[in-house]
Amino acid sequence: MTTIRSKFLFTGLAAVLLSASLPVLANEAYVGYRQKIMAAVGGHAGAIGAIVKSKLPEQDAIAALAEAVAKTADTVPAAFSHALHEGATDAKPEIWDNMDDFLTLNDAMRKASLALADAARKGDPAVVKKAMRDFSKSCGACHRSYRKPKEESYKQRR
Ligand code: HEC
């Protein structure tokens, strides 16, 4: 009998806890998800940077890595559709006041990554260099307005 009663009690308690914490958990999961998307963009861009800077014999990989960034950019609008700017995130609240601008900057990154892929395939070093510069600038253009600077990053608080 007691076990049945405590089972009921437990189920009730679990239901209350779950209903109270689910939205918060979902928000945290969303923030974590979009940070992974950005980390993926950063990983691909970092690999391209390593090839170019250290002149690694991996020129053929540049186009594939740049195209992966373009594909990843397609997931950004939905990932940032929830106005979550509290807690462990460096996303500035201004994103959700200026969503059109934010999405335009995302599209600029997408186009710059496709231009870089195209340049890399054609293989003219001067054109690749310029495309590389435009590509890097497309990150900074969005981060400048919509990502907290390092000094204010939640990562400083950990
Ligand atoms: C349209 C806007 C936008 C563009 C374009 C953009 N970013 Fe970001 N990026 C953000 C925002 C906003 C965050 C903060 C996300 C958060 O903490 O919730 C971020 C975070 C990051 C992070 C940290 C991810 C983590 O693990 O927390 C990296 C790395 C990064 N961006 C790299 C890049 C690179 C490299 C590019 C260009 C190829 C780029 N980003 C282009 C908006 C952008």
Give the count of helical stretches.
5
What percent of the residues sit in helical stretches (DSSP H or I)? Answer: over 70%
Distance between the termini: 47 Å
Decide which structural class fits the backbone.
mainly alpha
Major sheet size, sense and barrel closure:
none
- Shape descriptor reads elongated
Number of strands: 0
Taken in chain order, the helices and strands follow as HHHHH
* Beta-strand fraction estimate: under 5%
Rg over CA atoms: 21 Å
**Uncertain segments:** none
Number of domains: 1
CATH topology: Four Helix Bundle (Hemerythrin (Met), subunit A)
**CATH class (first level) name:** Mainly Alpha
Query: What's the CATH H-level homologous superfamily?
Result: Cytochrome c/b562
Second CATH tier, the architecture: Up-down Bundle
Mean pLDDT, all residues = 89
Small-molecule binders: heme C
